[in-house]
Amino acid sequence: MLERGELLEGVIEKFEDRTAVIAVVGLGYVGQPLVLRFAEIGYRVLGFDISLELVNLLNSGSSPIEHIDNKRIAAARLAGFEATTDFSRIKDATGIIMCVPTPLNKHREPDLSFIVNTCEQIAPYLQDGQVVALESTTYPGTTKEVVVPRLESAGLEVGKSVFAVYSPEREDPANIDFTTSTIPKVVGGHTPACLKAGLALYGGAIETLVPVSSTETAEMTKLLENIHRAVNIGLVNEMKIVADKMGIDIFEVIDAAATKPFGFTPYYPGPGLGGHCIPIDPFYLTWKAREFGLQTRFIELAGEVNRVMPDFVMSKLVSALNQRGKAVKGAKVMVLGIAYKKNVDDMRESPSAVIMEELRRQGAVLSYADPHVPVFPKMREHSFDLSAVELTPPTLAAQDAVVLATDHAAFDYEMIRKHAPLIVDARGVFRAPEKHIVRA
């Protein structure tokens, strides 16, 4: 039997000479880029997911994610990548990276069921010398309190025979300036030996690693990153409402403030927060802080401001229609852009879906245009039997109003400006004041 030090050195050597098999559990927006990166640099990669449909699609050389080129999936397959639903094959891997969802439940409390279920699925197949990394965003203490005990249920001692790390994902879909390999990666280990194993796991794939003292520190780092954005976006969304009441263009204000070369970072308002991180992650810390008798007032206030932004957009639409002698009920309203941010196909937590729900509730004749989302996808909280409408002068002219909710680069904004009878602009695309354009 190998001594502790010998086992760790053997694990590190496998990563360095790339004889280690990498297992990625959860093949979505975070898991697929990791699969591709490890495959591209010579590792054999196994992908695990509970969706047989997704597994079959990836094994055919295709991806359902728009910004991931099918050619890269096909190349990974040629390099040995294989997707599977058979979790017994975890025993073949040296590095196991978990990229599973961490949503909130209906009470806005952390839902760790995906992490728990994944740990319980892999535990029976764990072997000496494996490294298990969690990348899912969660509250500080999750790795120590939730993951480690379930790994040790297999009879292995974390830090000696198996190694546990937390390394938060930092994916930014469709960002051409930063990729999986170039975004610095924070890594925290359950023990010093775990940290060494984690750094070896990611060392060949990521250009810059940022080791921290514990998994709790790494978990808190991810939350701070996203809370920083959520709070600042909440601030600028509130400023938008104040500026609107005062007849001031908030986008002009932001552009002017951004000329200051120090002490100011521009954030831009919108119809609300979307994506898998910023609307959700701050509440993981809010929930955990209650355990220590603390109230995270900044975080909760920012969340309240951001959650009501779709209502602000709706109020501007209702007012603009009323001024034209129209009610929302029966009005033809087209939502422009339903992905949560520009130039992606990701619908998770999209404020556009919230606006569409309210339009439907008030009786609007609803349609949408989005070049990245041809059919409204299945979502946990929203369901629309709709397909994207092609944007043309006649389709625009046929509407009573269009709501610009997501400012995709593919939209022809000059055509929209010319032919839409009423534009409710929630993204500040149309800067010049015109009678038929309402800033929201």
Q: What's the CATH superfamily of the largest domain, by name?
A: NAD(P)-binding Rossmann-like Domain
Provide mean pLDDT, rounded.
94
Q: How many β-strand runs?
A: 13
Low-confidence stretches: none
> What's the helix-strand series?
HEHEHHEEHEHEEHEHHHHHEHEHEHEE
Number of domains: 3
What does the overall shape look like? elongated
Strand content: 5-15%
CATH architecture of the largest domain: 3-Layer(aba) Sandwich
Structural class: alpha/beta
Write down the CATH class of the largest domain: Alpha Beta
Oligomer: single chain
The rounded distance between the terminal residues' Cα atoms is 67 Å
CATH fold type of the largest domain? Rossmann fold
Rg on CA atoms, Å? 24 Å
What share of the residues lie within helices?
25-40%
Number of helices: 15
What this model shows, in words?
The strands form two sheets. Strands 3-2-1-4-5-6-7-8 form an eight-stranded mixed beta sheet, sandwiched between helices. Helix 1 (4-17) packs parallel to helix 7, helix 2 (31-40) packs across helix 4 (70-78) and helix 5 (113-122) runs parallel beside helix 6 (142-152). It is elongated. It has 15 helices and 13 strands. The N and C termini lie far apart (67 Å). It has three domains: 4-213, Rossmann fold (3-Layer(aba) Sandwich), CATH 3.40.50; 223-288 and 295-303, N-(1-d-carboxylethyl)-l-norvaline Dehydrogenase, domain 2 (Orthogonal Bundle); 308-439, NAD(P)-binding Rossmann-like Domain (Rossmann fold), CATH 3.40.50.720. It is an alpha/beta fold and 440 residues long.
